[in-house]
Amino acid sequence: MAQFVFEADLHGLLKLDTPIPNAPPARWQRKAKDTGVPGPSPAAGLSPMKPANRSHSSSKTPSRTPGKPGSKIQSTPTKAGGDRYIPNRSTMQMEMANFLLTKENDPAEESPTKKEQQKAWAVNLNGFDIEEAKILRLSGKPQNAPEGYQNNLKVLYSQKMTPGSSRKNGRYIPSMPDRILDAPEIRNDYYLNLIDWSSQNFLAVALDNSVYLWNHTSGEIIQLLQMEHPDDYVSSVSWIKEGNYLAVGTSNAEVQLWDIQHQKRLRNMISHSSRVGSLSWNSYILSSGARAGHIHHHDVRVAEHHVATLAGHTQEVCGLKWSLDGRYLASGGNDNLVNIWPCTQGDSGDFAPVQTFTQHQGAVKAVAWCPWQSNVLATGGGTSDRHIRIWNVCSGTCLSAVDAHSQVCSILWSTNYKEFISGHGFAQNQLVIWKYPTMAKVTELRGHTARVLNLTMSPDGATVASAAADETLRLWRCFEMDPIKKKEKEKANSAKSSIIHQGIR
């Protein structure tokens, strides 16, 4: 039976077109409701912007169905309706589509003469070049914008994607801490330095009037000391580079030295008149900063330990750190000053700062030296400042400054990446990893419910420990090194150590 193709005329009515011989069955045809009526039932064209109207209006003139007396014969609806949209074939360029499909299978290499002929034919037949009309291409070069064309949407016509092999994938930084430790009765005091991690993998934590050691390897916890008087408390702790001795500053102006192996106090050095809130080692010289604003150098080898006094602050010294090469000592105080001290005395016999930075508008507790640039120092200001600044201590210039939008309590440089991490107080109480030297924010680590008081780093440089006023210590594996780079670093370190042993022998 010949199939009929229906098309919607301009008035939405149906007209019968010429039958197409040997046409395949139309899948969109509906079956007649009455099996006695042969052929498809007519359907009107639908508007693509409106929902289909599926109700049919019947003619008023009754008619009978063959074989069923008294039944009504269905007639052509007087209103447009139906359930399918039939496109107008006259508007479809079937020959053009066939030509484009067959052209895609042609060989890619064609002579210039043949290409010119095809272009001329396309222009004569269609009024435009086929190649110019192809907007979405499966292959070939992207189209270039015409000369002098300005695109308001900033579309890049000729941008090439970076090959997948040359893309640098960012490393994975866990957003949750690797471990959480309880720190009951830790003092919520911005000016104190209460945690430090030794090269022998011991984490020292000052909890009110006691000091505890946590062995990261075995998980063992040792109570190293407890103050004799209940009103006294521990205000600072600092490990010597070798990790076998711990310096402890107290609220009663003492500086104690403890032997970890024997868990024994070696000496008690008294020279300050107020609490000792900051400590830093430079070989056998131990520097201590006090609330009175003075910094004392202690030579722990001799009986007369107090060898020098640095007077450059008018208020409490809360940040103190020797550079890795031992040339400079950086100090930050509650007077908003940052002083850079030399390791040797001047001609007059007194120590004087070689640089004094006054740009901070709040107390400066966070001071940290860059491990791969010995003359670069990072400092962070308190609540009224909230800025992190990078300094060149040789020239005295501020290399960069960034607004952290919260109190800066501590800064640590990474030894595995060109990055550093900062601990903050109000209002987010978060840790932030920064890229250096761009100062771009890499990520934020959240979890503490009160301000972060101190940060310290594991000896392998992979884990950062944060102590906060919420009485918890959290360990973040944020600088874990790639296994391949880690092996290369260990190999380089072993080579250096072998060279040193050969030189000593």
TrEMBL record:
Pathway(s) this gene product operates in, as recorded in its UniProt entry: Protein modification; protein ubiquitination
WD repeat locations: 227-268, 310-341, 445-476
GO biological process, one term: anaphase-promoting complex-dependent catabolic process
InterPro entries: Cdc20/Fizzy (IPR033010), WD40/YVTN_repeat-like_dom_sf (IPR015943), WD40_CDC20-Fz (IPR056150), WD40_repeat_dom_sf (IPR036322), WD40_rpt (IPR001680)
Name the UniProt record assigns to this protein: Cell division cycle protein 20 homolog
Residue span of region Disordered: 15-86
Keyword Secreted: no
UniProt-recorded Gene Ontology molecular function terms: anaphase-promoting complex binding; ubiquitin ligase activator activity; ubiquitin-like ligase-substrate adaptor activity
Subunit description: Component of a complex with CDC20, CDC27, SPATC1 and TUBG1. Interacts with NEUROD2. Interacts with dimeric MAD2L1 in its closed conformation form. Interacts with BUB1B. The phosphorylated form interacts with APC/C. Interacts with NINL. May interact with MAD2L2. Interacts with CDK5RAP2. Interacts with SIRT2. Interacts with isoform 1 of NEK2. Interacts with HSF1 (via phosphorylated form); this interaction occurs in mitosis in a MAD2L1-dependent manner and prevents PLK1-stimulated degradation of HSF1 by blocking the recruitment of the SCF(BTRC) ubiquitin ligase complex.
GO cellular component: anaphase-promoting complex; centrosome; cytosol; kinetochore; mitotic checkpoint complex; nucleoplasm
Domain CDC20/Fizzy WD40 intervals: 181-476
Signal peptide boundaries: none
Function field: Substrate-specific adapter of the anaphase promoting complex/cyclosome (APC/C) complex that confers substrate specificity by binding to substrates and targeting them to the APC/C complex for ubiquitination and degradation. Recognizes and binds the destruction box (D box) on protein substrates. Involved in the metaphase/anaphase transition of cell cycle. Is regulated by MAD2L1: in metaphase the MAD2L1-CDC20-APC/C ternary complex is inactive and in anaphase the CDC20-APC/C binary complex is active in degrading substrates.
Protein family according to the UniProt entry: Belongs to the WD repeat CDC20/Fizzy family.
CDD domains per record: WD40
Compositionally biased tracts (Polar residues): 54-64
Gene encoding the protein: CDC20
Keywords of this entry: Cell cycle, Cell division, Mitosis, Repeat, Ubl conjugation pathway, WD repeat
Pfam families: WD40_CDC20-Fz
SUPFAM superfamilies on file: WD40 repeat-like
